[in-house]
Prior knowledge:
With 285 residues, this protein is an alpha/beta fold. It contains 10 helices and 8 strands. The chain has an 8-stranded mixed beta sheet, sandwiched between helices. Helix 1 packs parallel to helix 10 (267-279) and helix 5 (155-162) crosses helix 6 (167-180).
Amino acid sequence: xxxxxxxxxxxxxxxxxxxxxxxxxxxxxxxxxxxxxxxxxxxxxxxxxxxxxxxxxxxxxxxxxxxxxxxxxxxxxxxxxxxxxxxxxxxxxxxxxxxxxxxxxxxxxxxxxxxxxxxxxxxxxxxxxxxxxxxxxxxxxxxxxxxxxxxxxxxxxxxxxxxxxxxxxxxxxxxxxxxxxxxxxxxxxxxxxxxxxxxxxxxxxxxxxxxxxxxxxxxxxxxxxxxxxxxxxxxxxxxxxxxxxxxxxxxxxxxxxxxxxxxxxxxxxxxxxxxxxxxxxxxxx
Length: 285
């Protein structure tokens, strides 16, 4: 059997609710699969190969284009719950009964919705650069809404949105940008305008409170690792502290000199922290 990595793993397809979903699976053959759910507008090629390949050393890694995203068909949902329901249907279509779940940014919204609706499917949870429902917005960068809405995000856009405005942060951002474009064959399509609009509706819905704020976090009983950069201008870092305070079995890791894309700025350290969390018989030991 060939050994695939981020840049060589073939795009595969499976039917979910009558639509064709694109996904890639690579890494170790055995172990609990790690399903990775990406940020706003992102598909499978928006991940950092150092992160995906690093995590795939000891477990199967699964990247997914949800409905209407990238190379997947169907209509993109307008809520985190809709994204989560699609992800659950996808796992069932593949016959997967349990996963570790890693959600980055909007993928973190979806991950929370998924584990709340189907806790039996999730063994351990990793939330990166994300917020709880109706989380804090104070500290969002002045130009975030404008830049994130650009039809095509440039390198400078990514540097502003994902990385700290410091020499180290900008250097790390440029290095990430180069790695992100290493895959040149069988690349993922960019999400179209209809999918982007639906994901914007998802974000607006997630910002709306349902009952008392943060109470649903107490129902997330799976061991949870919460990760962010010190100065996240996309999803202010205080939200990671809120998640760690309200999820009963959670640990918070904050990286220095970094922002929303801290996992891309410290890919090897991030993989070491996540691998230790996922591989330990008892989490947080």
